[in-house]
Amino acid sequence: MNSDSASGFGTLAIHAGQSPDPTTGAIMTPVFLTSTYVQEAPAVNKGYDYSRSHNPTRTALEQNLAALEGGRFGLGFASGMAAIHCVVNLLQSGDHVIAGNDLYGGTYRLLQTLYRKFGVETTYVDLTDHAQLEGAFRPETKLVMLETPTNPLLRCCDLQAIAAIAKRHGVLSLADNTFATPYLQNPLRLGCDIVVHSTTKYLGGHSDVVGGALITDDEELHKRLMHFQNSCGGTPGPMDCFLVLRGTKTLHVRMERHCENARRIAEWLQQHPKVERVIYPGLPSHPQHELVQRQMRHGGGMVSVELKASVDEAKRVCSSFRVFSLAESLGGVESLVDHPASMTHASIPAAERRAAGLQDGLIRLSVGIEDCDDLIADLDRAIG
Ligand SMILES: *Cc1c(COP(=O)(O)O)cnc(C)c1O
User: Which CATH number applies to 252-383: 3.30.40.10, 3.40.50.720, 3.90.1150.10, 1.10.10.10?
Assistant: First the structure.
Protein backbone atom coordinates (compact mmCIF):
# COMPACT_ATOMS: atom_id res chain seq x y z
CA MET A 1 0.00 0.00 0.00
CA ASN A 2 1.14 3.49 -0.78
CA SER A 3 1.26 5.58 2.39
CA ASP A 4 -0.42 8.47 0.52
CA SER A 5 -3.69 6.55 0.40
CA ALA A 6 -4.18 6.43 4.17
CA SER A 7 -3.48 8.73 7.06
CA GLY A 8 -4.66 6.79 10.11
CA PHE A 9 -1.83 5.34 12.18
CA GLY A 10 -3.42 1.88 12.52
CA THR A 11 -4.04 1.61 8.78
CA LEU A 12 -0.45 2.61 8.02
CA ALA A 13 0.88 0.23 10.69
CA ILE A 14 -0.86 -2.71 9.03
CA HIS A 15 -0.50 -1.81 5.36
CA ALA A 16 2.29 0.70 4.65
CA GLY A 17 5.12 -0.76 2.56
CA GLN A 18 3.21 -3.98 1.92
CA SER A 19 1.14 -5.32 -0.94
CA PRO A 20 0.08 -8.88 -1.77
CA ASP A 21 2.89 -10.92 -3.31
CA PRO A 22 2.48 -10.52 -7.11
CA THR A 23 3.40 -14.16 -7.87
CA THR A 24 1.07 -15.90 -5.39
CA GLY A 25 -1.22 -13.31 -3.83
CA ALA A 26 0.21 -14.12 -0.38
CA ILE A 27 -1.12 -11.40 1.91
CA MET A 28 1.94 -11.49 4.15
CA THR A 29 5.28 -10.17 2.91
CA PRO A 30 7.40 -13.25 2.13
CA VAL A 31 10.66 -13.79 4.01
CA PHE A 32 13.08 -13.49 1.11
CA LEU A 33 15.82 -15.84 2.26
CA THR A 34 18.16 -15.14 -0.62
CA SER A 35 21.61 -13.63 -0.77
CA THR A 36 21.63 -12.82 -4.49
CA TYR A 37 19.24 -12.21 -7.41
CA VAL A 38 19.42 -13.49 -10.96
CA GLN A 39 20.07 -10.69 -13.46
CA GLU A 40 18.49 -10.55 -16.90
CA ALA A 41 21.70 -9.18 -18.40
CA PRO A 42 24.79 -7.72 -16.72
CA ALA A 43 23.59 -4.92 -14.39
CA VAL A 44 19.98 -5.37 -15.53
CA ASN A 45 17.93 -6.41 -12.49
CA LYS A 46 14.65 -5.77 -10.71
CA GLY A 47 16.14 -3.36 -8.20
CA TYR A 48 17.82 -6.09 -6.17
CA ASP A 49 21.33 -7.43 -6.73
CA TYR A 50 22.72 -8.50 -3.33
CA SER A 51 20.96 -8.80 0.03
CA ARG A 52 23.36 -6.70 2.10
CA SER A 53 22.43 -3.83 -0.19
CA HIS A 54 18.69 -4.54 -0.57
CA ASN A 55 16.25 -7.28 0.30
CA PRO A 56 12.50 -7.14 -0.43
CA THR A 57 11.46 -8.08 3.14
CA ARG A 58 13.71 -5.32 4.43
CA THR A 59 12.34 -2.87 1.87
CA ALA A 60 8.81 -3.53 3.15
CA LEU A 61 9.93 -2.89 6.73
CA GLU A 62 11.86 0.24 5.78
CA GLN A 63 8.83 1.70 3.99
CA ASN A 64 6.53 0.72 6.83
CA LEU A 65 8.66 2.42 9.50
CA ALA A 66 9.13 5.51 7.34
CA ALA A 67 5.35 5.87 6.99
CA LEU A 68 4.83 5.51 10.75
CA GLU A 69 7.37 8.23 11.53
CA GLY A 70 6.07 10.57 8.84
CA GLY A 71 9.29 10.45 6.80
CA ARG A 72 9.88 9.35 3.21
CA PHE A 73 12.94 7.15 3.80
CA GLY A 74 13.69 4.27 6.14
CA LEU A 75 16.77 2.11 6.64
CA GLY A 76 16.88 -1.19 8.51
CA PHE A 77 19.76 -2.33 10.71
CA ALA A 78 20.81 -5.45 12.63
CA SER A 79 20.45 -3.57 15.94
CA GLY A 80 19.71 -0.14 17.36
CA MET A 81 23.44 0.31 17.91
CA ALA A 82 24.19 -0.46 14.24
CA ALA A 83 21.68 2.27 13.31
CA ILE A 84 23.26 4.83 15.66
CA HIS A 85 26.70 3.83 14.41
CA CYS A 86 25.56 4.60 10.86
CA VAL A 87 24.61 8.17 11.84
CA VAL A 88 27.92 8.78 13.59
CA ASN A 89 29.63 7.67 10.36
CA LEU A 90 28.46 10.96 8.82
CA LEU A 91 31.08 12.70 11.00
CA GLN A 92 34.76 13.07 10.47
CA SER A 93 37.80 13.64 12.61
CA GLY A 94 37.65 17.06 14.32
CA ASP A 95 33.84 17.18 14.40
CA HIS A 96 31.97 17.78 17.64
CA VAL A 97 28.75 16.21 18.97
CA ILE A 98 26.35 17.49 21.62
CA ALA A 99 24.40 14.74 23.37
CA GLY A 100 22.01 14.43 26.28
CA ASN A 101 23.72 13.67 29.59
CA ASP A 102 21.62 10.57 30.25
CA LEU A 103 21.99 8.83 26.90
CA TYR A 104 21.42 5.12 26.42
CA GLY A 105 24.59 3.47 27.78
CA GLY A 106 25.49 1.78 24.49
CA THR A 107 25.38 5.12 22.66
CA TYR A 108 27.61 6.71 25.28
CA ARG A 109 30.03 3.78 24.98
CA LEU A 110 30.13 4.08 21.19
CA LEU A 111 30.94 7.79 21.36
CA GLN A 112 33.50 7.44 24.16
CA THR A 113 35.35 4.25 23.29
CA LEU A 114 35.18 4.29 19.49
CA TYR A 115 34.58 7.75 18.04
CA ARG A 116 36.69 9.69 20.52
CA LYS A 117 39.79 7.87 19.33
CA PHE A 118 38.93 8.90 15.76
CA GLY A 119 38.88 12.53 16.89
CA VAL A 120 35.13 13.06 17.34
CA GLU A 121 34.51 14.74 20.68
CA THR A 122 31.18 14.79 22.52
CA THR A 123 29.84 17.27 25.08
CA TYR A 124 27.06 15.93 27.32
CA VAL A 125 24.46 18.46 28.43
CA ASP A 126 21.14 18.54 30.24
CA LEU A 127 18.86 18.93 27.22
CA THR A 128 15.96 20.16 29.37
CA ASP A 129 18.12 23.28 29.89
CA HIS A 130 18.22 25.11 26.55
CA ALA A 131 20.77 27.68 27.78
CA GLN A 132 23.16 24.81 28.52
CA LEU A 133 22.55 23.44 25.03
CA GLU A 134 23.15 26.85 23.41
CA GLY A 135 26.38 27.20 25.37
CA ALA A 136 27.75 23.88 24.10
CA PHE A 137 27.85 24.73 20.37
CA ARG A 138 31.27 25.14 18.75
CA PRO A 139 32.16 26.00 15.17
CA GLU A 140 32.91 22.29 14.64
CA THR A 141 29.61 20.99 16.09
CA LYS A 142 27.86 18.76 13.54
CA LEU A 143 25.28 16.72 15.43
CA VAL A 144 22.87 16.99 18.38
CA MET A 145 21.76 13.60 19.75
CA LEU A 146 18.76 13.37 22.01
CA GLU A 147 16.44 10.85 23.64
CA THR A 148 13.04 11.52 25.15
CA PRO A 149 11.87 10.06 27.49
CA THR A 150 15.29 9.04 28.81
CA ASN A 151 16.35 5.87 30.55
CA PRO A 152 15.67 5.24 33.43
CA LEU A 153 14.72 8.68 34.81
CA LEU A 154 12.18 9.30 32.02
CA ARG A 155 13.18 12.93 31.64
CA CYS A 156 11.55 14.55 28.63
CA CYS A 157 13.06 17.18 26.39
CA ASP A 158 11.41 19.49 23.91
CA LEU A 159 11.93 18.00 20.43
CA GLN A 160 10.60 21.03 18.58
CA ALA A 161 12.69 23.55 20.52
CA ILE A 162 15.90 21.50 20.32
CA ALA A 163 15.45 20.80 16.59
CA ALA A 164 14.99 24.53 16.02
CA ILE A 165 18.12 25.40 18.03
CA ALA A 166 20.16 22.80 16.09
CA LYS A 167 18.80 24.10 12.78
CA ARG A 168 19.70 27.68 13.70
CA HIS A 169 23.29 26.50 14.23
CA GLY A 170 23.24 24.56 10.95
CA VAL A 171 23.63 21.28 12.86
CA LEU A 172 21.81 17.96 12.31
CA SER A 173 19.50 16.66 15.03
CA LEU A 174 19.05 12.94 15.76
CA ALA A 175 16.21 11.79 18.01
CA ASP A 176 16.21 8.32 19.56
CA ASN A 177 12.48 7.58 19.63
CA THR A 178 12.78 4.06 21.06
CA PHE A 179 11.02 4.75 24.39
CA ALA A 180 8.13 6.73 22.90
CA THR A 181 7.56 4.87 19.58
CA PRO A 182 6.09 6.61 16.51
CA TYR A 183 2.62 6.02 17.94
CA LEU A 184 3.28 8.43 20.82
CA GLN A 185 5.50 11.06 19.20
CA ASN A 186 7.00 11.90 15.79
CA PRO A 187 10.31 13.80 15.99
CA LEU A 188 10.51 14.40 12.21
CA ARG A 189 7.21 16.25 12.31
CA LEU A 190 8.68 18.44 15.08
CA GLY A 191 11.71 19.37 12.97
CA CYS A 192 14.32 16.72 13.81
CA ASP A 193 16.42 15.51 10.86
CA ILE A 194 16.81 11.81 11.71
CA VAL A 195 14.92 9.38 13.94
CA VAL A 196 16.57 6.24 15.27
CA HIS A 197 14.84 3.20 16.77
CA SER A 198 15.95 0.12 18.52
CA THR A 199 13.22 -2.03 16.95
CA THR A 200 14.18 -4.62 19.58
CA LYS A 201 11.85 -2.79 21.96
CA TYR A 202 8.25 -1.69 21.26
CA LEU A 203 8.33 -1.95 17.45
CA GLY A 204 9.22 -5.66 17.51
CA GLY A 205 7.22 -5.77 20.71
CA HIS A 206 7.49 -9.49 21.49
CA SER A 207 11.06 -9.82 22.83
CA ASP A 208 12.01 -12.13 19.96
CA VAL A 209 14.22 -9.99 17.73
CA VAL A 210 17.08 -7.47 17.85
CA GLY A 211 16.99 -4.71 15.25
CA GLY A 212 17.33 -1.03 14.49
CA ALA A 213 16.16 1.60 12.03
CA LEU A 214 16.79 5.13 10.81
CA ILE A 215 14.12 7.34 9.28
CA THR A 216 14.55 10.69 7.58
CA ASP A 217 12.59 12.90 5.22
CA ASP A 218 15.70 14.36 3.57
CA GLU A 219 16.68 12.53 0.38
CA GLU A 220 20.29 13.72 0.35
CA LEU A 221 20.78 12.66 3.96
CA HIS A 222 19.08 9.34 3.25
CA LYS A 223 21.52 8.64 0.42
CA ARG A 224 24.52 9.39 2.62
CA LEU A 225 23.15 7.12 5.36
CA MET A 226 22.34 4.35 2.88
CA HIS A 227 25.92 4.51 1.63
CA PHE A 228 27.18 3.73 5.16
CA GLN A 229 24.45 1.15 5.77
CA ASN A 230 25.78 -0.77 2.78
CA SER A 231 29.47 0.00 3.41
CA CYS A 232 29.46 -1.15 7.04
CA GLY A 233 27.00 -3.96 6.38
CA GLY A 234 25.16 -3.98 9.71
CA THR A 235 21.91 -4.91 7.98
CA PRO A 236 19.17 -7.17 9.38
CA GLY A 237 18.34 -10.59 7.99
CA PRO A 238 14.97 -11.07 6.27
CA MET A 239 13.51 -13.16 9.10
CA ASP A 240 14.27 -10.38 11.58
CA CYS A 241 12.67 -7.85 9.23
CA PHE A 242 9.59 -10.04 9.03
CA LEU A 243 9.34 -10.22 12.82
CA VAL A 244 9.54 -6.44 13.23
CA LEU A 245 7.04 -5.98 10.41
CA ARG A 246 4.67 -8.34 12.21
CA GLY A 247 5.26 -6.33 15.39
CA THR A 248 4.42 -2.95 13.90
CA LYS A 249 1.02 -4.22 12.72
CA THR A 250 -0.22 -4.19 16.33
CA LEU A 251 1.88 -1.29 17.63
CA HIS A 252 -1.04 1.10 18.10
CA VAL A 253 -3.14 -1.49 19.94
CA ARG A 254 -0.28 -2.62 22.15
CA MET A 255 0.78 0.94 22.99
CA GLU A 256 -2.73 1.87 24.10
CA ARG A 257 -2.66 -1.02 26.57
CA HIS A 258 0.97 -0.45 27.65
CA CYS A 259 0.15 3.18 28.40
CA GLU A 260 -3.15 2.45 30.14
CA ASN A 261 -1.53 -0.18 32.39
CA ALA A 262 1.48 2.05 33.08
CA ARG A 263 -0.73 5.00 34.06
CA ARG A 264 -2.80 2.88 36.44
CA ILE A 265 0.33 1.38 37.99
CA ALA A 266 1.96 4.81 38.37
CA GLU A 267 -1.15 6.14 40.12
CA TRP A 268 -1.30 3.09 42.39
CA LEU A 269 2.40 3.35 43.30
CA GLN A 270 2.02 7.04 44.13
CA GLN A 271 -0.22 6.09 47.06
CA HIS A 272 2.14 3.41 48.40
CA PRO A 273 3.83 4.16 51.77
CA LYS A 274 7.11 2.46 50.75
CA VAL A 275 7.42 4.58 47.62
CA GLU A 276 9.53 7.73 47.73
CA ARG A 277 8.79 8.94 44.20
CA VAL A 278 7.08 7.72 41.03
CA ILE A 279 8.46 8.93 37.72
CA TYR A 280 5.96 8.63 34.89
CA PRO A 281 5.57 11.17 32.05
CA GLY A 282 1.78 10.78 32.17
CA LEU A 283 1.48 11.92 35.80
CA PRO A 284 0.85 15.60 36.61
CA SER A 285 3.74 15.30 39.12
CA HIS A 286 6.24 14.69 36.28
CA PRO A 287 8.58 17.73 35.97
CA GLN A 288 7.94 18.06 32.21
CA HIS A 289 4.27 17.10 32.30
CA GLU A 290 3.14 20.17 30.36
CA LEU A 291 5.63 19.35 27.58
CA VAL A 292 4.57 15.69 27.63
CA GLN A 293 0.98 16.73 27.01
CA ARG A 294 2.05 18.78 24.00
CA GLN A 295 4.53 16.31 22.56
CA MET A 296 3.27 12.81 23.34
CA ARG A 297 -0.05 11.10 22.75
CA HIS A 298 0.16 9.25 26.12
CA GLY A 299 2.75 8.85 28.87
CA GLY A 300 4.34 5.65 27.54
CA GLY A 301 4.80 2.16 28.96
CA MET A 302 7.80 2.77 31.24
CA VAL A 303 7.47 3.62 34.93
CA SER A 304 10.37 4.26 37.29
CA VAL A 305 9.84 4.01 41.03
CA GLU A 306 12.13 5.16 43.80
CA LEU A 307 11.55 2.86 46.75
CA LYS A 308 12.49 3.88 50.27
CA ALA A 309 15.07 1.10 50.12
CA SER A 310 18.78 0.29 50.14
CA VAL A 311 20.45 -1.50 47.22
CA ASP A 312 19.91 -4.83 48.96
CA GLU A 313 16.25 -4.18 49.74
CA ALA A 314 15.61 -3.02 46.18
CA LYS A 315 17.32 -6.18 44.88
CA ARG A 316 15.13 -8.31 47.15
CA VAL A 317 11.98 -6.60 45.83
CA CYS A 318 13.16 -7.13 42.23
CA SER A 319 13.71 -10.83 42.89
CA SER A 320 10.29 -11.48 44.41
CA PHE A 321 7.96 -10.77 41.50
CA ARG A 322 5.88 -13.57 39.99
CA VAL A 323 4.31 -11.89 36.95
CA PHE A 324 6.99 -9.27 36.22
CA SER A 325 10.23 -10.91 35.01
CA LEU A 326 13.61 -9.67 36.18
CA ALA A 327 15.40 -8.74 32.95
CA GLU A 328 17.09 -6.01 30.98
CA SER A 329 15.43 -4.64 27.82
CA LEU A 330 11.90 -3.31 27.53
CA GLY A 331 8.93 -2.84 25.25
CA GLY A 332 7.69 -6.42 24.96
CA VAL A 333 4.18 -7.63 25.71
CA GLU A 334 5.38 -9.12 29.02
CA SER A 335 6.14 -6.96 32.05
CA LEU A 336 9.79 -6.64 33.07
CA VAL A 337 11.49 -5.19 36.11
CA ASP A 338 15.05 -3.86 36.16
CA HIS A 339 17.20 -2.59 39.01
CA PRO A 340 19.40 -0.04 37.18
CA ALA A 341 21.94 0.37 40.01
CA SER A 342 22.91 -3.30 39.82
CA MET A 343 21.90 -4.17 36.23
CA THR A 344 21.55 -1.80 33.26
CA HIS A 345 23.45 1.12 34.86
CA ALA A 346 25.90 -0.79 37.09
CA SER A 347 28.88 0.35 34.99
CA ILE A 348 28.35 3.98 36.12
CA PRO A 349 30.26 4.63 39.39
CA ALA A 350 27.87 4.82 42.40
CA ALA A 351 28.68 8.44 43.30
CA GLU A 352 28.18 9.58 39.69
CA ARG A 353 24.93 7.62 39.48
CA ARG A 354 23.50 9.27 42.61
CA ALA A 355 24.68 12.72 41.50
CA ALA A 356 22.74 12.19 38.25
CA GLY A 357 19.59 11.47 40.29
CA LEU A 358 19.63 7.69 39.92
CA GLN A 359 19.07 6.42 43.47
CA ASP A 360 19.97 2.92 44.68
CA GLY A 361 16.32 2.17 45.47
CA LEU A 362 15.09 2.99 41.97
CA ILE A 363 13.47 0.21 40.00
CA ARG A 364 12.37 0.48 36.37
CA LEU A 365 9.23 -1.20 35.14
CA SER A 366 8.56 -2.02 31.51
CA VAL A 367 4.82 -2.42 31.90
CA GLY A 368 3.45 -5.12 29.62
CA ILE A 369 -0.06 -5.73 28.36
CA GLU A 370 -1.15 -8.35 30.88
CA ASP A 371 -4.26 -7.77 33.03
CA CYS A 372 -3.45 -4.72 35.09
CA ASP A 373 -5.04 -6.11 38.27
CA ASP A 374 -2.56 -9.01 38.17
CA LEU A 375 0.35 -6.60 37.71
CA ILE A 376 -0.77 -4.45 40.63
CA ALA A 377 -1.25 -7.54 42.83
CA ASP A 378 2.28 -8.62 41.90
CA LEU A 379 3.71 -5.20 42.81
CA ASP A 380 1.74 -5.22 46.05
CA ARG A 381 3.19 -8.60 47.00
CA ALA A 382 6.78 -7.74 45.97
CA ILE A 383 6.98 -4.29 47.57
CA GLY A 384 5.16 -5.61 50.65
C1 LIG B 1 18.01 -0.67 23.43
C2 LIG B 1 18.27 0.74 23.04
C3 LIG B 1 19.24 1.08 22.10
C4 LIG B 1 20.15 0.04 21.46
O5 LIG B 1 19.43 -0.84 20.67
P6 LIG B 1 19.89 -2.38 20.40
O7 LIG B 1 18.80 -2.88 19.54
O8 LIG B 1 19.99 -3.04 21.74
O9 LIG B 1 21.21 -2.30 19.73
C10 LIG B 1 19.40 2.41 21.76
N11 LIG B 1 18.66 3.37 22.33
C12 LIG B 1 17.73 3.09 23.27
C13 LIG B 1 16.94 4.20 23.87
C14 LIG B 1 17.50 1.78 23.64
O15 LIG B 1 16.57 1.50 24.59
Answer: 3.90.1150.10
